[in-house]
Each structure stands twice: as C-alpha cells, then as structure tokens.
Design a protein that fits this description.
nine-stranded antiparallel beta sheet; alpha+beta; 206 residues; 11 strands; two-stranded antiparallel sheet
C-alpha cells in the first residue's frame, strides 16, 4: 500500500513545471499555488527540495529526472482528465480532499498546513467512484452529523452533490447550487449513491 507523501507548495510547483501538462494551471488553482507558478525562484526552491529528499535527481548534464510515486504525482498534476473536490464537514470543522485522475494514475491530496499537501497515490484497481464512496462512508461513519460535498472541478460550475447520513443508516442526497439556500434531499441506498457519484464524476456508462 503506497504511503502518503508530504509536499510543500514549492515542490508542487516544481512537479507542475516538470510535467508541463495541459491540466497544470487548473490543478495549480485548485491547490491554491497558482499565484506562485510564474516565480522561477519558487520553482527552483521546489526542485532543490525534491533533490534533497531524493525524490528527484540531476544527472551530470544538469537534466532533472523523477521516478516512482513522485513521478506519478507529477503525471496526475499535469495530465489530470478529472479533478474532484470533496469538502468534508462536521459540526466542529471543515476539511477538503482533492482527487486528481490521469490515465492509469490517480492521486488523493489533502491539505496540511501553510499551503502544503499530503499526496497519496491511489490503488490502480480501485475505480474512482468506489474510492469516493469509501471516503464519504468513512467520514460520515466518524461524523454521523456531518456532510460531504462532492464536486467535479469544472470552471464556472460550482454545483456539488450533498451527502448526509439518514437516521435509518442510509443516505440523504441533494444538490447545492451557488446563490441558492434551498436544498431538497432524497433518500438513497449504497447502490443509488454509487450511481449518483458516477454521474457527478462524468464516468462513462459501460
């Protein structure tokens, strides 16, 4: 089972610059590091940190290379075809999780402190909707009076699926819309929640 890797925002910028993929700017905005991405000194600091931690290597010709799980994180940052945002709510606190999915690579990111993130590569054999269901179930098992908002990160959308636990142990689903305080909820079982998560994610029906 892969272990989570703590990354500073400068290291994330370095990985984004290393890959240079089309989804990089959107991923940077979602992770809150976009304001720094045009600062060469910040990217250089990230590269130095990755090298010092043996996550990256510089050959005698000055070429940078990364491998293993960190290379997978760079792919997810730069080539993500799907960016999911999960907002975890409890009566006392709010947290968020970002799931980046590129072909054959998926990474879960959770904020630490001061703009840093935990990155956890996801098992290749676990579909994204099932992984999301596990996250929702885990949070609401520990926080039965809490809520999870599940949103596909698409510019200008802002619509999220609201998931809460019902008193009978099932689920209450609703849709949050920017500018509206009304939330009509309907009951669902595990199967219905999974179907709804697939729809929110935009999974292809097979």
């Amino acid at each position: 089972m892969p272990e989570q890797i703590g990354l500073g925002f400068a290291e994330i910028l370095a990985l984004l610059a290393f890959h240079g993929g089309e989804s990089g700017p959107a991923a940077a905005a979602l992770l809150g590091v976009d304001r720094y991405e045009n600062l060469p000194d910040m990217v250089s600091a990230g590269v130095s940190s990755l090298v010092a931690r043996s996550y990256a290597h510089v050959d005698p010709h000055g070429e940078l290379s990364i491998e293993g799980e960190v290379a997978g994180i760079a792919i997810a940052l730069g080539a993500a075809e799907r960016r999911m945002l999960l907002t975890l709510e409890s009566p006392a606190w709010t947290d968020r999780i970002v799931l980046l999915e590129a072909p054959d690579v998926a990474v879960l990111l959770r904020p630490r402190a001061y703009g840093t993130w935990w990155a956890l590569p996801q098992p290749a054999d676990l579909p994204g909707a099932e992984a999301t269901l596990n996250l929702v179930r885990g949070h609401l098992t520990e926080n039965p009076r809490g809520r999870v908002l599940v949103e596909r990160h698409v510019e200008g959308q802002g619509v999220a699926l609201s998931v809460r636990r019902s008193d009978d142990g099932g689920w209450l689903l609703g849709q949050t819309v920017p500018g509206s305080e009304e939330l009509a909820e309907f009951p669902a079982d595990d199967a219905a929640l999974l179907v709804t998560l697939r729809a929110v994610r935009g999974d292809q029906v097979r």
